[in-house]
Amino acid sequence: MKLQLKKYVAALAMALVLTSCSNDDNNTPTGEGSLKLKFDNIYGNANLAFNTPYTNSNGEVVKVDKLIYIVSNIVLTKEDGTTYTVPKSESYFFVNEADAASTTINLPNIPAANYTKVTFGVGVDQAQFNQGAEGQGNLWATASDPALGMTWSWAAGYKFIKFEGTVTSASHSNAVFRVHTGKTGDIYNYAEISMDLPEQALVRTNVTPQVHIMADFKKVIDGTTKINFEEGLSVMGGAKVQNIMANNVPTMFEVDHVHND
């Protein structure tokens, strides 16, 4: 009797294991879905709004009236550590504060999975840049459209960030400032951002997660490297741009939350 009971218990345990494995297999997501990256531009602790005064740590008061940046080369990391790379030809976006629709990037044809990290570039990577204007197709055409003005007038290169407005300081009263980043000399200044998600983005055929990313533009000019407009109203090259891209830009992005609905 005891032997029969042991055989029964063993058989029941094996059935439970097989059922569990079968359920795990059935719960593995399949197919493809979409994922959205929502960029919310802020200035310090405030929502970034055009023509609104913000005071920097050096006492300068800035008002922003133009803000455009390039997001590129998006890579998504799954919970098992493997990655999905959005095809490069489909992975260049112009986030324009003046165009609300552009602040949400929709990524279609994403393999269904649980994603834990997002990586992207700010700017255009050197390999793409080296193709020259003729080899860059729609990217170059879009960037050079006067409505965006994300190419340099004197060279076949891209502006990675265009950040403009007015500044009031000891020597200036609503003077126009311009901060444009991109390649300077032999330094390419492309920045890569990688952020863990506070909760998994569950891409499914019927679920489109939205990853809400805060972009703090105070840190562009008032971060680890501080820009003093008393030294010049145009920041477009040299060590200042290099320091902005190397020190400030990598710290300005943060994932606030993820919507899975």
From TrEMBL:
UniProt-listed InterPro entries: MbnP-like_dom (IPR046863)
Pfam families: MbnP
Source organism per UniProt: Flavobacterium aureirubrum
Name of the featured protein: MbnP family protein
Keywords associated with the record: Signal
Sequence ranges assigned to domain Copper-binding protein MbnP-like in this UniProt record: 33-231
Record's signal peptide: 1-22
Regions that span the bilayer: none
Keyword Signal: yes
